[in-house]
Amino acid sequence: MEKIRLAVAGATLYAARLTECIRKNAPDDLEVFGCQCLEELTDFLTKTQPDILLCEPDAVQSNPVKDLVQIQLTDEFSKKQGKELDKVIFRYQRGSEILRQIFQIYEKRSKKNLICRCRTADMEIIAFYAPGGHELLLPFSISYASICGENARVLYLNFCEFSGMVSLFGEKEGNTCSDLIYGIRQKQEQFLLCLQSVLHHTEYFDYILPPENPEDIYEIQEEDLAFLLKMIQEQTEYTHVIFSCGTFHRAAEQVLACCGKIFCIVKENAFGKYRQTEFRAFLKKDSKQRIREKAEYISPQAGYGTFVQGMDLLAQIQGGEFAQQVRELTKYGDKEGDHA
Question: CA 276 to CA 211: how far, in whole Å?
């Protein structure tokens, strides 16, 4: 069987990392090439004759190879399609999801029946949202971050109003998510310094405290979030970014739209079911398709008595009923594959 030839073109560190990520775990019928020198891209494509070109915006070509399926990586949440492009893929996704979409696009354009199993790994973005009351949102998402952090580098961000996170972790010296957003607007070239000024650490994951003023959450712009994810992906070693979103405000919708997984916290009671029904109906809108396809509804089980007073609350979260349920979730995800 003739191999499919995929070329990844881009001058950034992210493009180089994505190329290696795909190449390392590519199925047998996929051959992967990378080009970081855009001045030589035309000659590179002429020499390699790829079937698919995955490129950053600066590397877009005008029909350089016959029958080439050209796909652009984009920062835009709207996934707008360029005039000379076959398709566009949102870049802030797990590598396996990017590769799955590449094959899906190529199969449609080339009319070939492809059977490929991809096992690539890249930065995975996960969101927790609570349409049915969010008193269990913080401890369950923290438990998830702790379990992931046993074998990965995890960054936890909280976009909830009055989540209780400060009370859980205690008062910390340093800045909050508000300062991070303000900092990247003002001095984008000093992102790592800005990140270090707001970062806190636990044994299993790093975290950034939510804004002191919840109104700051509502003012987060699309370009702020896109730049934040871009810098985390290109300049840090995090493999998982976990968001906690308690209300469906603008920033939360942006987060949910770009995540590979969305866990929706619901209660097993009448009120929880009503909220879940309304949220499902809301997601039926065409504009919410990207969220609807990734939403998974779960009901956290805190166990009898929930938490014991006088004991370390964080330790109870990391090792109690939530942890058992989280391990089942992550185990299920591993069995299902890397499609999320």
Answer: 27
Query: Tell me: the pLDDT tens digits for 259-306?
Result: 888 999 888 778 878 888 888 998 898 888 878 888 888 887 755 445
Alpha-carbon distance 258 to 91, whole Å?
A: 9
Question: Of 272, 248, 78, which Cα lies nearest the Cα of 89?
Answer: 78
Whether pTM > 0.90 for this model: the answer is: no
| Exposure string over 91-115, b if 16+ CB within 10 A, otherwise e | bbbbbbbbbbbbbebbeebeeeeee
Q: Please state the φ and ψ torsions of residue 155, each to the nearest 5 degrees.
A: -120, 130
Instruction: Give kind and range of the element (H or E) at residue 222.
Output: helix 222-235
Q: At what angle do helices 13-25 and 222-235 cross, to 10 degrees?
A: 60
The stretches of 32-77 forming alpha helices (DSSP H) are 41-48
Q: 57: which DSSP letter?
A: G
Q: Tell me the C-alpha to C-alpha distance, in Å, between residue 30 and each of 48, 103, 105, 194, 263.
A: 13, 10, 15, 40, 32
pLDDT in tens, 12-28: 888 898 998 888 877 77
Residue 118 and residue 100 in contact, taking contact as beta carbons nearer than 8 Å: yes
